[in-house]
Amino acid sequence: MKTYLSTFRNRESAVQLFKLVFIGGFNTVLTFAIFNVFLFLGVRASISSAIAWTLTIFTAYYLNRRWTFGLRSGASGMETGRFFAVNAAAFIVTAGALEFGEWVLDGLSTLEANLIQLAMAGFLVFPKLAAYRDAVFRVNASDSA
């Protein structure tokens, strides 16, 4: 495990992390906007999150593939499937946290739902970077642009 973690301690990984956070920030703002529109319309928080996720996942895939990992060609159905699987797992964790919040607090205010959504986005940054690099795009830090 220690050896694996050391693969993230280099300039390329730092640049990938910066790009991932930047794209994630953009995507999070877009997701939050869509999420809050549906909350405003009275849709349950976990369902609002699912709708927002579905509408923004394509942007995340394209930007991370092209900019974060510098891949211009060679996209495959398997790669796309792995990206969606990683993000579906992250979504399930986030939706679970929202549902847990709904249960514990007997409903969530808009602020509480947004704070949970934001906390989960931050919590999942590093696991997603690792999954994108090693399982989805299969780019070693030293191979990336």
Low-confidence stretches: none
Order of helices and strands: HHHHHH
Shape: globular
Number of helices: 6
Which value, in Å, is the CA radius of gyration?
A: 16 Å
The largest β sheet comes out as: none
What is the total domain count? 1
Structure summary, number of beta strands:
0
Strand content: under 5%
**Mean pLDDT over the residues:** 88
**How much helix, percentage-wise, in residues?**
over 70%
Structural class of the helix and strand makeup?
Answer: mainly alpha
N/C terminus separation: 25 Å
Can you walk me through this structure?
By secondary structure, this protein is an all-alpha fold. The chain has one domain (10-143). It contains 6 helices and no strands. Helix 3 runs antiparallel to helix 4 and helix 4 (77-104) runs antiparallel to helix 6 (125-136). The longest helix is centred in the first third of the chain and has 30 residues, at 11-40. The mean pLDDT is 88.
List keywords for this structure.
single chain, 145 residues, mainly alpha, 6 helices, 78% helix
Describe the structure concisely.
The chain is mostly helical and 145 residues long. It has one domain. The chain has six helices and no strands.
How is this fold's topology laid out?
Elements: H1 2-6, H2 11-40, H3 45-68, H4 77-104, H5 110-123, H6 125-136
